[in-house]
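hey
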């Protein structure tokens, strides 16, 4: 059965798209830790990031770098933090989180709930710098 993230990458479930190519898709996390919190996924359905083959994993990191640089241009932050959890959605993904403080990437703190218009505006701003 297709994962929710496969359906997002296929456009069957809506998302705040940041960037895509034939192998990867980036979109805003719906419950962000910080404004601009983005997920990067491979279109290939694999649960665990470290089960991806070496080349795909390396290319995914390069794709994530491009996304991170676009986030940095759009969101005031010191740098972009990177995390891999995968405890909730069984489709490999990398979290890119704008950081001003270490606590900005604490997954145990309450998530933000931003209005649709703000999520759309954030996505548009990041997309335009990609
Ligand atoms: P984890 O699998 O533990 O890395 O967490 C999955 C992440 O995906 C969480 O941060 C969720 O907020 C996020 N998430 C789950 N469903 C969606 C969705 N439909 N659109 C965007 N982000 C999502």
């Amino acid at each position: 059965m297709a994962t929710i993230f496969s359906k997002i990458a296929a456009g069957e479930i809506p998302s705040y798209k940041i960037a895509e190519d034939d192998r990867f898709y980036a979109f805003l996390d719906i419950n962000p830790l910080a404004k601009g919190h983005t997920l990067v996924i491979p279109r290939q359905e694999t649960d665990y990031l470290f089960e991806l083959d070496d080349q795909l994993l390396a290319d995914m990191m390069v794709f994530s770098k491009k996304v991170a640089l676009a986030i940095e241009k759009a969101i005031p932050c010191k740098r972009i933090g990177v995390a891999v959890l995968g405890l909730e959605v069984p489709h490999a993904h990398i979290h890119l989180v704008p950081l001003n403080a270490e606590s900005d990437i604490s997954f145990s703190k309450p998530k933000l709930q931003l209005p649709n218009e703000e999520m759309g505006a954030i996505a548009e701003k990041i997309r335009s710098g990609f």
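The domain at 4-128 is CATH 3.30.428.10 (HIT family, subunit A). The radius of gyration is 14 Å.
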